[in-house]
Amino acid sequence: MTVTIYHNPACGTSRNTLEMIRQSGEEPEVVEYLKAPPSRERLVELIHAMGIRPRDLLREKGTPYAELGLEDQTLADDALLDAMMAHPILINRPIVVTDRGAALCRPSERVLPLLDNPVATFTKEDGETVGGYRA
Q1: Residue 105 annotated to the active site
Q2: CB 96 within 8 A of CB 102
Q3: Helix or strand or coil: residue 42?
Q4: How far apart, in whole angstroms, are the C-alpha atoms of residue 108 and residue 26?
Q5: Tens-digit pLDDT profile for the chain (135 aa)?
Q6: Is the whole-model pTM more than 0.90?
Q7: Cα dihedral value 83, 84, 88, 90, nearest 10
Q8: What does the buried/exposed string (b/e) look like for 52-76 if buried means 16 or more CB atoms within 10 Å of the residue's CB?
Q9: Domains within the chain, CATH numbers bracketed
Q10: What HEC string does 80-115 produce?
């Protein structure tokens, strides 16, 4: 199985997701998207693969979301994509892509259905235990 994670190592959810993938027996391609942002074309592909709209991928917390006026619901998808390309921190994470599909893995256990052999139980950094998922 091919697994790619668009990852921010400073994000606990992203770190938990990466560790769930690894404990499931996969070694993913890790794309630190703040250092190596996806192209606009790839970002559009990811959005389509996840079945969401660009607005659904926007991150507000700790980003220039408010100062850029992105709360304006009349902004076109192209304007939102332009903002994410100019400020990759606006791209919510982690995004995981496998042969089974793609998902924004918030919460981190959203990765489990994307894996062939998902970890049975996992304890997150904050001590929360998740599990019980079967492929």
Answers
A1: no
A2: yes
A3: helix
A4: 16
A5: 899 999 999 999 999 999 999 999 999 999 999 999 999 999 999 999 999 999 999 999 999 999 999 999 999 999 999 999 999 999 999 999 999 999 999 999 999 999 999 998 999 999 999 976 766
A6: yes
A7: 90
A8: eebeebbbeeebebeebebeeeebe
A9: 3-131 (3.40.30.10)
A10: HHHHHHHCHHHECCCEEEECCEEEECCCHHHHHHHC
Which member of 5, 11, 31, 84 is catalytic?
Answer: 11
CA distances from 128 to 42, 62, 107, 124, 125 (A): 33, 24, 12, 5, 7
CB 126 within 8 A of CB 108: no
Q: Which two structure tokens, joined as six digits, stand for 69?
A: 């006026």
